[in-house]
Predict the structure.
Amino acid sequence: MDVLDIENLHKSYGRLRVLRGLNLRLTRGEVYGILGPTGAGKSTLIHILMGFLKPSDGTIQMLGTTNLETSRVRVGYLPEQMRYHLRYTAREYLTFLGHLSDMNGAPLRRRVEEELERTGLSHVANQKLATFSRGMLQRVGIAQALLANPPLLLLDEPTGGLDPVSRHEVLDILSRLRSPDRTILLCTHHIDEIEYLCDRAGVLINGRLVVEVAVHQVRGISPA
C-alpha cells in the first residue's frame, strides 16, 4: 500500500523555483532517504507535507487521502531545528505535547514512558530540558515525533549540529524505528545515514529528484 504518493510537485517563490516536478512514492514499512545539499529543496518538501507551505502545483496523497489536514494528525515530525520549552522536564514536556494531540490519562502516561525508554531518557526524565545537551534534546525531539505511534514519520536532518558521539547515539535510535507498520522519510546531506538507515534513496538537486536507487547502490552517487 502506498503511504505517500506525490505527483508533479512544484514550489516557487516568484521566479525562484524550489521544487520542480517532484514525484515520489513510498510504501508501507519503507525507510526512504532524500539526499541533497543545503538548498536542494528537502526542507521545503517536508514543510509542504506538514502544511507549513502550500505547493504551487502538483498532487499529494498521504495515508490514503488527499485531505492532508486529516492525514497530518497521524504523521510524526522531527524538524531540522526544534524549539523546546526549556522550563519543563522531559516527562512534563512530552506529556504537554501529548495533551495538545488529544492524548490523556493512562494511555498518554504509558506512551510517554515508552518513548523515554526508547530514546534512553528514562533516567533523566525529571530533569529540566534547560540542563540537556544538544544530543539529549534531539532525543526528546525523536520521542515527541513518536508519541502518537504514527504510521508515517518525517525526519528533517535528524543529526544536524550534533557532535560525533551524540550523532552515533541518535542514529542508533533511528535504526531501531524500522517497523512493518511505520514508513519513514529521512532528509539528510549525509550519505552514510542513507546507507545505514534506508531501503531506497533519491538524490534531490535544484528541486528535482534526479536519481532513485536501492540502498546498496547509494555509495558512489553524490548530492553535490
